[in-house]
Amino acid sequence: MEKIRVLCKNTMENIAVEAGTTLLDLLNKLKYDQSGMKVLAAYVNHELKELSYKIYLASEVRFLTYDDIDGRRCYHRSLSLLTQRAIAELYPNHTLFLKYNLPNGQYGELRDKENIGQILSLDDIDIKKIKDKMKELVKKDLLIIKSKIPTSEAKEIFLSRGQHNKARLI
Fold first, then answer.
1. pLDDT tens across 72-130, in order?
2. Does the global pTM surpass 0.85?
């Protein structure tokens, strides 16, 4: 397989890797010390990419942690997806609508899929179940896989989840 050169801007190390190497594999080869901070994403030639992104051409890479503004955005987005997954598993007849970002969290509503106007109130026991489910999912270390699908399929997914506004947008 063809070798390409990658410059890691964090370490200023220039490394030869096989074309098609993921950013995560590159990170492991570099043995980049993040000082206890987990790498969340990277800029590849100044474009934000997930760690599963494959590099096929010579590139400059800068890894991002929570200390970087775009690293924080990736973290918050991942947390939103994790919350949605936990809710979907615990409350399959409801849909989570994340409404607003707050300084230290988000505001959302859990709505009945059949009667979208009906909002489910959560008590402390429900919140604990959601937190516990999220911790369980984190321990599984599941990947978030970005995929492209036809618009019609995306619309069907949104409708099946009771997300009619999103379905109308596409």
1. 999 999 999 999 999 999 999 998 988 888 887 889 999 988 887 899 999 999 999 99
2. no
CA 88 to CA 96: how far, in whole Å? 8
User: Beta strands 94-102 and 105-112: pairing type?
Assistant: antiparallel
Residue 51's nearest CA partner among 67, 82, 75 is 75
| DSSP state for residue 166 in the 8-state scheme | H
pLDDT band of residue 153 (cuts 50, 70, 90) is very high
Residue 105 has which token pair?
């969290």
Q: What is the largest CA-CA distance in the chain?
A: 57
Give residues with Cβ within 8 angstroms of 26, minimum separation 6: 6, 8, 15, 17, 55, 61
Residues 33 and 25: their CA atoms lie apart, in Å, by 14
